[in-house]
Each structure stands twice: as structure tokens, then as C-alpha cells.
Automatic annotation (TrEMBL):
Keywords: Leucine-rich repeat, Repeat. PANTHER family: LEUCINE-RICH REPEAT-CONTAINING PROTEIN 14B, SIMILAR TO PREFERENTIALLY EXPRESSED ANTIGEN IN MELANOMA-LIKE 3. GO terms for cellular component: cytoplasm. This is Leucine-rich repeat-containing protein 14B. The lineage of its organism: Eukaryota, Metazoa, Chordata, Craniata, Vertebrata. InterPro entries: LRR_dom_sf (IPR032675), LRRC14/PRAME (IPR050694).
Length: 519
């Protein structure tokens, strides 16, 4: 779909397309045209012009989300273009704004907001090279540190030290960029560019380093906290975190796998869980909670009942929930507000069909995303599922990978899904009849790719034809066998892979050493 451009935007494109001319002429450009020229330069990937626009930015704020979002001149949203050329030019331009020898009275910039940048799977920029959240964290931290070193060594205009710009960013810290980020945060007071962390994600980090860096971020300003994968945070560490640090503005919390395990709970652990629930209850802004792959059987009420604000997003996938947990969710005040719900990894038809459908009916008026992967949904359950999903008229995303459904059942379900007006994304399973006879569910990782690929392709074509015949070519249907795209994981997978190999090697060495001692 081609997006219409206004005459004003076309003129801006013509102006910035000749980089040399544009850079020489910026001094004569009206200040209110800078946002228009910035978006045009970003669209055309004119890195040098992007740099110079930022270096000479005449306004008091610079908000990437708004500058690249839908505007009157050009309605296409470019905030999902994490173009490496443009973003690097933008950040180095920000450094050079500070060093620019123009009068400090000319410098009005006070706030730079980088949080509106969205990391997506498919990039449309010509360079095809992206700068993800981790790389943005790395580059901004390096620029802040380099800037301080330069200011201390060079003879700068005294007015340079009066420049103070808050740079709002979503930080992503791992072992590999930890030292750089810590140095930038420690020296924040002296640096003209002041990193203000709005969202924080940590992966592949020791607990000691995590606790140290989280304190430096000014937790009282954090809106989103993601502690994932290779941060070995368990329940006692979480209680310690909440006791030591307050998160009054926190809206979204993601905890790593195995944070909770009620199978080995003692009376002390029960009290700990109660304390964690109370601390979460004090976070009056909290509306998004993800705690997948923990064992929480029978404890959902204890954890969620203290919350004073209804949750809009809840991920309790693979948490071994029982009937009491599902009954609490269905009857809680959260149910009417849930926009995003993930109950994957639970045998819903067998354990609590009526309670689940009660929960679904309560959130149906607001539900946007539903994940029911590996839930043992079979052909005999499809009609009931259709009945439950029918009122979900705002549903945009439905994921149900890993369920033992036949080709015929999938066609029946797709015919219904065409009727959901807001639906945009469907993740469906490889049909059961594409796997060898006798395959058991859930299918293990070793067997998940052992299916008749030609037959699958034929069925996938038929399912897409159902969408096309219903004029629903706006719906993307796919089968991501190993999970949906995760920009953060994709960006750091080399580091995480190296960490896993190192961990495996250490485990093997310990095992060999123990075995040798026994021998």
C-alpha cells in the first residue's frame, strides 16, 4: 500500500536528497521545518543530513516516536525502522550538538526521547542493517563516556558544561555491555547527556551485577522491568529486590523462568510469597505481569489478590495452574480488563474447560491477544473454542501452536477466524495428520520438525486461500515452530549461545571430576 505524501513532504525529500546542498543550507531553514526534514531524511536514509539536523536541533524536545510516527505530511509510521545508518547518525549528532561551538543561548534542547523506537522482524530500510535495543544501549553509553573524556581533555567553550539534556531510553544490559553502561550511569551527573532509563531489560547477567546496575538506573522512574533467561533470579532474590528497591511507577514486570517453584515450598517460602504479593500490591501502576515457566500451582490468588490495579496483560504460560487458580482468574476483577492473555502449556479441555470459557467471556470485550499453545486442544474441542472466541471482536492475535488439530479442524477454525474483524496475526500448528501416526503431544523439540513438509505446505496454502476468499489478506498466518520472533533474543543470540555452551562445558567438567573421584 502506497502512502500519500503532501506537497510539503515531497519538497522536503527533494531538499534532503542532495546531502551536500542540504547540509550547507540548514542555517537558513526555519526552525519549525526541522521535524519535517528529519522524517524525510530518515525515510531516504540520508545519514549525514540526519546527523546535521540533530547537531543543530533548534527546538526544546526531540521525540523519536513522534518525529517518525504518522504525521500530516506523510502518514506512514517509520518508528519501526531501526535503520543502523540513521540511528547512529542520530546519536552521534546528539553528541556533536553538545560539542557544537555555537552560543549556549542558541541551545534549547532539554529532552531527547528514544523510547518510541520499535524493534520488528522485517526491516524496510535500504541498508538492511538494524540497530536494536542492545546496540542502542551500547552506543549511547559509549558516546556519554567518550563525551566526558573529551570535555575533560579539550579546551571547550565554558557554555558546553551548561548543556543538560535528559535522554530517555529503554536500556538492555547483558554481560557484554555491562561495564560500559555502568560507567555511563555512574558519571551521569557530570555528563551533559543524562541517561534516563524508562524501561530496563537484563539478560545473561549475574545477580550481583543485576542488583548493582538496577540501583544506578533510578528505579523510581522505571516503567518497565524485564528480567529474563540467564539471570538466575529466584523467589528469595525477588523478595530482596522488592524490599530494597521501590518501583512506584512500574507498569510492566517480566520475571525469568523458575522464579517460583511451589513444589519445594516451606512455611518460610509461603510467607515470602505473601510478602512479594504485598509488595506488588504497592505498585499501583502495575498492569502487565509475565511469570512464565514458574510452578505456581494453587498460589495465583496469594500472588495477585493484593494488586489494586486490574491487570491488562497476564502471561502465566507453563505455570502448572490448577482449577483453583483458573477459578480465581475467572472471578477476579482482572478478568474484565485483560487485553493480552497467555495460558499456554495447560491442558485446558481436560482440567478446567468451563472455568476457562468463563474467563474468556469476561475479557472478551477487551481481549486483543490470546495464546493457547500446547493446550491439548483437539478436533472435538473446536466448536466449543469457536463459541468462546465469537464475542472476542477486538482480537488481533491468536496463537495456538502445538495443539493436536487435524487439517480439517484447522480449515473449520480458519473459516470462523475470518469473521473476527480486527484479527491480524494467527500462529497455527502443523496439522496432526502431517506427523507420523502415533506421535504424542506435547511434541518434544527433537521430533517437532519430523513431519510431512509437502503436505504441510499444501494445507497452509488451503488455509491462506480461506483467508483470501474472505477478503482477509490483512491476516498473517504462520507456524513458527520454535516460538514467535523476539527482537531482543535475536539481537543477542550469539552472546546467549556462547553462555549456554560455557555453562554446558562447566557442568560436564564438574560431572567428569565427580565421576573421576568416585572411580
Amino acid at each position: 500500500r502506497t502512502t500519500m505524501k503532501s506537497l510539503r513532504f515531497i519538497s522536503a525529500e527533494a531538499f534532503v536528497s542532495n546531502a551536500e546542498f542540504a547540509r550547507k543550507s540548514l542555517g537558513a531553514v526555519a526552525h519549525d521545518l526541522f521535524p519535517l526534514l528529519f522524517k524525510a531524511s530518515y525515510l531516504l536514509e540520508q545519514g549525514e543530513v540526519v546527523h546535521d539536523l540533530v547537531e543543530n536541533w533548534p527546538l526544546s524536545d526531540f521525540n523519536m516516536g513522534k518525529l517518525l510516527g504518522a504525521t500530516l505530511g506523510y502518514e506512514e509510521d517509520l518508528s519501526h525502522r531501526t535503520c543502523s545508518v540513521c540511528l547512529e547518525s542520530c546519536l552521534t549528532g546528539l553528541r556533536d550538538y553538545v560539542l557544537n561551538q555555537s552560543s549556549p543561548y542558541m541551545k534549547k534542547l532539554k529532552v531527547v526521547d528514544l523510547t518510541g523506537i520499535k524493534d520488528v522482524e522485517v526491516q524496510f530500510c535500504k541498508c538492511k542493517k538494524t540497530m536494536g535495543r542492545w546496540a542502542r544501549t551500547q552506543l549511547l553509553s559509549k558516546l556519554c563516556s567518550d563525551l566526558l573524556v573529551y570535555l575533560q581533555q579539550a579546551q571547550c567553550n565554558p557554555g558546553t558544561f551548561e548543556v543538560s539534556i535528559n535522554v530517555l531510553i529503554d536500556l538492555f544490559v547483558t554481560e557484554r555491555n555491562y561495564e560500559l553502561v555502568v560507567q555511563a550511569l555512574l558519571k551521569k551527573c557530570n555528563c551533559p547527556l543524562k541517561i534516563c532509563c524508562v524501561a530496563f531489560r537484563s539478560d545473561n547477567l549475574t545477580l550481583q551485577k543485576f542488583f548493582y546496575v538496577i540501583k544506578l538506573t533510578v528505579p523510581s522512574l522505571l516503567r518497565k522491568l524485564e528480567i529474563v533467561h540467564n539471570v538466575h533470579l529466584e523467589m528469595e532474590h525477588l523478595e530482596m529486590l522488592f524490599n530494597r528497591i521501590h518501583f512506584p511507577l512500574l507498569m510492566s514486570l517480566t520475571l525469568p523462568a523458575r522464579t517460583f517453584n511451589v513444589q519445594r515450598f516451606t512455611a518460610t517460602d509461603e510467607q515470602m510469597l505473601t510478602n512479594i504479593g504485598k509488595k506488588m500490591g504497592e505498585m499501583t501502576q502495575l498492569t502487565e505481569l509475565s511469570m512464565s515457566f514458574s510452578i505456581l500451582t494453587g498460589r495465583i490468588q496469594k500472588l495477585l489478590s493484593p494488586l489494586k490495579t486490574p491487570l491488562k496483560m497476564l502471561d502465566v504460560s507453563n505455570c502448572s495452574l490448577n482449577h483453583a487458580d483458573m477459578a480465581f482468574l475467572a472471578n477476579s476483577f482482572h478478568a474484565n480488563h485483560l487485553e493480552v492473555l497467555d495460558l499456554s502449556g495447560h491442558d485446558i479441555p481436560e482440567l478446567y474447560p468451563s472455568t476457562f470459557f468463563k474467563l474468556l467471556s469476561h475479557c472478551s470485550s477487551v481481549l486483543r491477544s490470546l495464546a493457547l499453545e500446547d493446550c491439548n486442544i483437539q478436533d472435538t474441542h473446536v466448536n466449543m473454542l469457536i463459541l468462546g472466541l465469537s464475542p472476542c471482536q477486538k482480537l488481533q492475535e491468536f496463537k495456538f501452536i502445538g495443539n493436536p488439530l487435524s487439517s480439517q479442524a484447522l480449515k473449520h477454525l480458519f473459516t470462523f477466524l475470518c469473521e473476527l474483524p480486527m484479527l491480524k496475526n494467527v500462529e497455527f500448528p502443523v496439522p496432526r495428520d502431517c506427523y507420523p501416526f502415533g506421535t504424542t503431544y506435547p511434541i518434544d523439540d527433537a521430533s517437532v520438525c519430523r513431519f510431512d513438509h509437502q503436505k504441510y505446505e499444501r494445507v497452509a496454502e488451503e488455509l491462506n486461500l480461506i483467508l483470501l476468499q474472505a477478503n482477509r489478506d490483512d491476516v498473517k498466518a504462520s507456524t513458527p515452530l520454535f516460538g514467535s520472533y523476539d527482537a531482543a533474543v535475536q539481537e543477542t543470540n550469539n552472546e546467549l549461545g556462547a553462555y549456554l555452551i560455557k555453562s554446558f562445558k562447566e557442568t560436564l567438567e564438574k560431572f567428569t571430576s565427580s565421576f573421576n573421584k568416585m572411580s
